[in-house]
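Record type: monomer structure entry
Structure origin: computed from sequence
Chain ID: A
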Amino acid sequence: MAGTTVTRRRRTGAAGAAEPALLGPVSRPGGETTLIVAAAVAFQILVWAFLIWLLRAGGPWYGFFDVSDITVYFEYAQKVAGGMRVYKDFSFEYPPLALPLFTLPPHADAAAYPNWFAAEMIMLSSAAAALTGATAAALWHGLGRPLAASGAYAAAVLAAGAITANRYDVAVALTLAACLFFLARRHTTAAGAALGIGVALKLTPGMLLPLVLIVAETRRRALFALAGFLVFTIVPFLPFLGRIDGLTNIITYHAQRPLQIESVPGTPYLIAGAMGAWGIGTGTSFGSQSLAGPGSELVARLSVWVGLLLVAGVYVLIWRRRTLLRAAPEFIPLAALACVLAFTVCNKVLSPQFLCWTLPLVALVVVGRAGWQRAAGILTLVAIALTQVEFPDLYWRMVDLESGPVAVVVARNLVLVAAAITAAFAVWKLPDSAPRASLATGER
């Protein structure tokens, strides 16, 4: 496209041998980037207007605030407003940066609070969409793929439905979108800082820190990225260091949770329960529903270690493709999605809102050039959509182990596993380095 250039830098090794050229972010007229970002926000306005209209007053199959955690968030906000101290006077299972998200909406009126909170999350979703569009603008020439990525983010929100607005996990998606944006522009220190903020929101973004360190081109840049991560992770915890028992509850609360009913490791128990097998039951604890049956506690404990092994395996693949990821950042979202999916499919807890973390990753992966990459994005989108089919409308029937709703969850979990396998395979299929033709022409 006229006026569009790509910055390339040639590095030399210790022996003077040329190493693969590094493709910098696409340089384009400022008006084009503004157009892409504006389109991403406009898509969000349209999607949210449609969802609010569709799900008003009960909607066609569920209401906008059905089975929402907003009541829990409101209770926390009320406790803080009443002078109670977090991590000391009341138990709080979230990291400290989650609390401002709960207390920011006006909380004098319990009836109005859900609307204010949803508006806050819709704004964060729009910010994540804008960053995703800006990332796409830095990765690809022209307007086609960047606008398609903006549209794909909107499609992912539509597939997820109201849960994006009545849980706070879209704030986690925003930190991942920021991380990808900074990596696309080779600001690895800022990328590490974005993940640090994510950890202070919900811990799980920390799984992508090794990706940032691998992408960093030098040891110095990796150390700065690690420093950015540590500073922005630690600082939000500093005001609460005198409340160690309360802070450690963030870890112990989740470590003690049983096998959650929608989790992939729980799928065999879910199927057996729907078929009337003896000894399979459901219960309520830790704010969600869980499965119980022979060996379920062992499965819950082992799932953590299996998940760590799978994520480590994905990182082995990423390490082997580090030269390409450093030279062609368009494949970084695929690597990130592979890590998140590996973690998700092995987690003993798979709450529906967890898939909101993937929104910016899916948007950038599904418009990629590689066929297996696009397949991983499409499968993840299907899993997100199946989650909305089940939750919240069929949720309580699924808890009662009715065969129809259980079949939807089983199908979602199978698709999610397929997406995780496809994403890992797509990383494995990547070339060791960027093709010479791409480096020569700047083709993205």
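Annotation 1: Residues 29-441 form one domain.
Annotation 2: The two ends are 12 Å apart (CA to CA).
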